[in-house]
Design goal:
The complex is a heterodimer of chains A (279) and B (182).
Chain A: E1 2-3, H1 6-22, H2 26-38, H3 42-61, E2 71-79, E3 82-83, H4 88-102, E4 126-132, E5 137-144, H5 146-149, E6 153-157, H6 162-177, E7 185-193, H7 195-206, H8 217-230, E8 246-256, E9 261-268, E10 275-278
Parallel strand pairs in A: 1-3, 2-4, 7-8
Antiparallel strand pairs in A: 2-5, 5-10, 6-9, 7-9
Chain B: E1 2-5, H1 10-15, E2 21-30, H2 33-45, E3 57-59, H3 84-92, E4 97-100, H4 106-114, E5 118-121, H5 127-131, E6 134-141, E7 150-164, H6 171-179
Helix pairs in contact in B: 3-4
The chains are: A alpha/beta (279), B alpha/beta (182).
């Protein structure tokens, strides 16, 4: 067994949030540079260049790249040989609290969905835990803004609709979302599972490396074809028209019931803020 | 990019076209979801509003807190459609210009055209860059709303794109149909 001090968890969560808020991952910046070259619309090109300059300025001057510094989503993969003394969730929330108050990040969480009183320290985070084998803990963290989350959804299709049904659902959602989720977007698609599993798959898909492709050949095919179709919609950067609407599409799948074909779409804006660490 | 000083003249409002890039200088007011709710409550109760609506420019933004020595933190636009219902009331009362991001409801667009107003779009997710054009930020109403409170901003060369013009022009619609393939 290995004991991990909860202060280490708190400190890592704090650092990861502060890094994520101000520093766009190199892979995404690279994709944006490619997008500037391939975008056909002059206005779209200029928007993409501004997004690039924004990322550079945010990193240099330590200003959050986007004012919506999000609600924090944390995935914890905990090795079964790890022990903690105390409350793990509270340790994560303490990291959130410190990052948002010390780091001049926006507090965007309300205590009750109807009462809507701001918690003033951006807690609580949304925490997903999974027990895996081993003696380490993997923290995947994604502060997520509401612009892209607000147009995300789960729909359960009849299995007969198959690949075409999934593609139609995703492309229609992209068209309906238009400029709202801050394109160029990253589209996370979860297929299979059930209601909540599909949503989780879509969220986890967004946490994948920007350049990787799905393992399953059918998922991989969907990723390629969806990206092509989404970029034919004409929505373009910020919805002003153009040929780069999505930077990439990620599809994650899971077994499902004989009677259903769940599909979840989780949109991610270009300010994709993710961090991963193994402790 | 065209440089314009606020408040815009009638002629300037009417001459702008969807897709035009503009650099604004002058005073704008921040208000998003919760502040719009308060403004309408104040109106209903006959209370004085935080700022005069006529000729005003409303920016849908909830900035990050300013670091010491800075005027404001990251300050990009939020999605405008959430304010459509209230914005239609404000349009009738003379608040003809709003700044945000993303497409809005057909009802809002119609009302905007009827009132000869402008909907300007700033680049979503470019809050660091946009913050550089904000020279001062003063809290003027609803401090309990935190990031959603109303602030008076003085801006210099604040970059926007005319999304909907006063004549019904719509960059989202025209841009999309121009670049749609297949």
């Amino acid at each position: 067994m290995r004991e991990i001090d909860l202060n280490i968890i708190t400190e890592n969560v704090r650092e990861m949030i502060l890094e994520a808020a101000c520093e766009l991952e190199a892979g995404i910046l690279e994709k944006l540079k490619e997008a500037v070259k391939s975008e056909e619309s002059p206005l779209g090109k200029s928007v993409l260049r501004n997004i690039e300059s924004n990322a550079e300025l945010a990193s240099k001057k330590r200003i959050p790249m986007c004012q919506d510094t999000g609600m924090v989503v944390v995935f914890l993969e905990i090795g079964s040989e790890v022990i903690f003394r105390g409350d793990l969730e509270e340790a994560v929330n303490e990291g959130v609290r410190r990052a948002y108050t010390e780091g001049y990040l926006r507090k965007s969480v309300v205590r009750h969905p109807l009462e809507r009183l701001n918690t003033r320290d951006n807690t609580p985070a949304i925490i997903h835990t999974r027990i895996v084998s081993g003696d380490s803990i993997k923290i995947s963290l994604a502060p997520k803004g509401a612009g892209s989350e607000n147009v995300s959804f789960v729909k359960i299709l009849p299995p007969g609709e198959g690949e075409e049904g999934i593609k139609k659902t995703v492309v229609e959602a992209v068209l309906k979302a238009g400029g709202k989720p801050c394109p160029p977007i990253i589209v996370g698609v979860g297929i299979g599972g059930n209601l909540e599993k599909a949503a989780l798959l879509a969220k986890e898909a967004l946490l994948r490396d920007i350049d990787d492709e799905a393992e399953h050949p059918l998922d991989r095919k969907l990723e390629r074809e969806l990206l092509e179709e989404i970029n034919k919609t004409g929505i373009g950067p910020m919805g002003f028209g153009g040929t780069v609407t999505a930077l990439t599409v990620k599809v994650n799948s899971y077994p499902c019931h004989i009677a259903s074909l769940p599909v979840a779409v989780n949109f991610q804006c270009h300010a994709a803020r993710h961090r991963q660490r193994i402790i | 990019m065209k440089k314009l000083n606020l408040p815009l003249s009638e002629q300037e409002i009417l001459s702008l076209q969807s897709g035009d890039g503009v650099l604004l200088s002058g005073v704008i007011y921040t208000a998003r979801d919760a502040a719009h709710k308060r403004i309408l409550e104040d109106l209903d109760a006959g209370r004085t509003l935080p700022f005069p609506l006529t000729g005003s420019v409303i920016y849908y933004v909830g900035p990050t807190p300013a670091k010491p020595g800075e005027a404001i933190g990251s300050a990009g636009p939020t999605s405008s459609y959430r304010m459509d219902r209230q914005a239609m009331v404000l349009l009738e009362l003379g608040a003809r210009i709003s700044i945000g991001k993303g497409d809005r409801s057909p009802e809002f667009k119609e009302k905007l055209k009827e009132c000869r107003g402008l909907y300007l779009a700033a680049i979503g997710g470019a809050g660091a860059l946009i913050s550089q054009s904000i020279k001062s930020c003063e809290l003027i109403a609803y401090p309990d709303l935190g990031p959603e409170a109303v602030h008076r901003l003085v801006v210099e060369d604040f970059p926007v794109i005319v999304a909907y013009d006063a004549w019904g022009g719509d960059i989202f619609e025209s841009g999309r149909s121009r670049y749609r393939k297949g």
